């Protein structure tokens, strides 16, 4: 089975061909936005991170940014930094180039350009050239085995585990059978169902990592003196008919279909194996989707 996509020089495949304007720090959000709004054919996103972060948090932010910049749906990227932040735009841009040397990458540092207006001008000029180059590419037939599917459920109710999630699990199985990859995530929504997914692990090491990851997630909440079971299931889940986190998890795990579990990876880590992958993410929808995209998924079903 094939789909129409963009073949990248490293063999990966994109279903989009974005020119991405990416702020490395929250302070650069508005400049990145202004660059994107001034050049048709670009896209951008904003976030509230990148500065005054402790080392583990800064590393996680950088990992997510780099994952978006190297993503096969992105043809080219402009990394915008302020110049004094913890997550250095220079390092983010350099790592994107190291991983994808074929990809056009431009660095815009607001302080070095002489302020926001000059930074916007410099970024817009570079973005215009990138859009011209991107527009020259044509879609071509590519194998479905190059697709990475991200799975997500939200607004769960009593029907999620008997309709929507099993349907998505079947789609996951179909893609894996074609040689593709599917990501199961949302760690807090696997509590109580970990034995189901761990039983399908391809090795003892993967099985142990699955159990350890889910246990550590709940232990971290307990260490902070909170009971995450008080916030999950949510009031909306309860109104929809779910009684406990275990009941919610038993419905959520269906998104993973029935194929063997090949790997367990952390949030926003690159997906490097084929088949079913478990990514350790929060249950919060946006954070979870962000992690899967940073890991390389080209399409997500919510």
Reconstruct the topology from this structure.
Layout: E1 2-7, E2 13-14, E3 18-23, H1 29-38, E4 42-44, H2 55-69, E5 74-81, H3 89-99, E6 105-109, H4 110-113, H5 116-134, E7 140-143, E8 148-151, H6 164-177, E9 181-184, H7 194-198, H8 204-223, H9 235-239, H10 245-252, E10 261-266, E11 275-280, H11 285-295, E12 299-301
Parallel strand pairs: 3-4, 3-5, 5-6, 8-9, 8-12, 9-11, 10-11
Antiparallel strand pairs: 1-2, 1-7
Helix pairs in contact: 1-5, 2-3, 2-11
Structure description:
Helices cover 40% and strands 19% of the residues. It is an alpha/beta fold and 302 residues long. The protein has a five-stranded parallel sheet, with helices on both faces. α1 packs across α5. It is globular, with a radius of gyration of 20 Å. The model has no long low-confidence stretch (mean pLDDT 95).
Strand content: 15-25%
Could you give a short account of the major beta sheet?
Answer: 5 strands, parallel
Adjacency order of strands in the biggest sheet: 10-11-9-8-12
The outline comes out as globular
What class would the helix/strand composition place it in?
A: alpha/beta
Can you summarize this structure?
With 302 residues, the chain is of the alpha/beta class. The chain has eleven helices and twelve strands.
